[in-house]
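ok trying this again, last paste got cut off
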Amino acid sequence: MRKQFFIICFLIVMLILSGCQKNNTSVDKKADQTSLTTLRVIADSEQALTLFKMEEKNMEKKFGVKFEYYFPNRLNDNLEDFLFASGETYDIYILFPGKIPQYVERNMLLPLDSYIQGDSSFDNIIPIYRQIYMNYDNHDYGIVYDGDTHLLFYRKDIFEKYSNEYEEKYGKKLEPPKTWEEYDQIAKFLTRDTNNDGKIDIYGTATFTSDAKRYAWFSERFLSMGGQYFDDQMHPMIQGRKGVKALQEWINLQNSGATPPESMYDWIDLNNVFLHGEVAMVVQWSDTLRFSFDDGTWNSKVKNLVGWSLVPGELKNAPRGGVWIGRVMGISSQTKNQEKAWQVVKYLSSEKVSSKAVTSLKTINDPYRTSHFTAKGKGPFPSHTINKEFLQSVQESLKNTNTDLMIPGGWEYMQVLDKNIGLAMIKKISTVAALENTAAEWEKITDRYGRASQIKYYNQWRKKLEEVRSP
């Protein structure tokens, strides 16, 4: 029976991996292809590979390389489930920083310390990305590729249209919400049947409710209330009063009619529903603003209509928002082309090349270097003023923010939470049961890794986080 189970699992893994697109770089037919080194690159999505494709010709000339790309048909948050089981090897991984511990446990990543130490080109990477995204267990395993951060985006025209009505009802101006209570209230208020045909034409908001990343939308509420994942002995605190309040209020919002009914949105869906003008505000990654000016790939209907602000919070000094997910480039410990892979990784993360990536409508890369926050001209926006003001807001969002849990099993902890949030949202279990089940599963994960060891890693992560939060 066990042998049959293994064979079935192996066949499923092979079937799913065969669904990953293999895309060979297009090359000049006149070039001597036999002299080029082939680098195999795997990513969570085709969008994550855009910068590689934009720079193919330059890298061919500079480093004598060509590429094979591997990615799932649609952005996949748990590609590693199949990658780890397959045994396939690649040269360069584009991965979420929160998954670095998983790769290190399997000895899949090459430590990059010897390359980075003494190289001043990495000095202007923003501390939260340099210390949290790139570094794990006192070693650098990745180079930042995509500096994600969350912001609140809202429709300026809708807020202006209903401002007087809101002020009459609530006694204050309709402005971007600063607290989650205001956020929920405004979302309900702005949900409208604008033509009186009995159907909602504009919803107040939408949230990320699909699998794998919805934990971040919960964590932003929970952590802004002063919540903590664990106590000093790694016993979960997620199931306490703050956790229950954060989750229940989010579920209440979902059930209030202020969000599209039965929506289970991932990143692409959430962008589409906002950019197509169907909701009044969303919390999303910062590239949403530049996509709002893209009437090609994203078919935006809200060009010049989008405002932005910091993610809502709760307690005055508690962290807000988060640099959730993001991407780094890691080099396989099994690669036979270590130097070539490093040349590519360093080139793509260089100040000059990365500056093009974070201002392009084609990429999904967001700022992560200090130099990225100096507005050079209008960037991807209609004016220098918008570019400057937006970059100032992104920089402000990094001052007291949250990050993914960078400890052994960190991604697993969050996926357990994510799963139970999903069950509560579809009313399979109660809010209390969702968080109590999460806490119970977290205890098992901690015991499996070793409680003393997990306490050490958790404290190291918290210490680094406090350091990069400091002014």
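PB: full thing came through this time. The radius of gyration is 23 Å.
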